[in-house]
UniProtKB/TrEMBL annotation:
InterPro entries cross-referenced by the UniProt entry: NTF2-like_dom_sf (IPR032710), SnoaL-like (IPR037401)
Identification of the protein by name: Nuclear transport factor 2 family protein
Organism: Kosakonia oryzae
Species lineage: Bacteria, Pseudomonadati, Pseudomonadota, Gammaproteobacteria, Enterobacterales
Domain SnoaL-like: residue ranges: 11-91
Length: 108
């Protein structure tokens, strides 16, 4: 399924699916905060390190399947398939947007 996602979120999912991690700075604000698996990652360097660690640990792909918007908050339900325990799973990505970039992301 192809959803019409804001550019920053589309770029984030492209990175998650093996795109150039250096593009983190193009989709997140400099002070953005990512919360995933109970851990918080703030700023481009920390978010980039988190993405690199996730991609090094497992092979996976993420397919956004549903989109909900509420002002500057965008929630994307995604199917995640890979070689990690419990695969496949449906994850909820809740993005906060500031202008044309992501300033917050919570994954549950």
């Amino acid at each position: 399924m192809s959803l019409s996602l804001p550019h920053a979120i589309s770029t984030y999912f492209a990175i998650s699916n093996g795109g150039d991690i250096a593009n983190i700075k193009h989709c997140f604000t400099a002070d953005a905060v990512v919360t995933d698996e109970g851990k918080t990652h703030q700023g481009h360097a920390a978010i980039e390190a988190w993405q690199r660690a996730a991609q090094a640990a497992f092979d996976y792909s993420v397919e956004p399947v549903q989109l909900f918007t509420d002002g500057n908050r965008v929630t994307v339900m995604s199917n995640v398939v890979g070689n990690f325990p419990g695969s496949p799973v449906v994850l909820k990505h809740t993005f906060g947007l500031a202008g044309d970039k992501i300033n917050a992301l919570e994954i549950v």
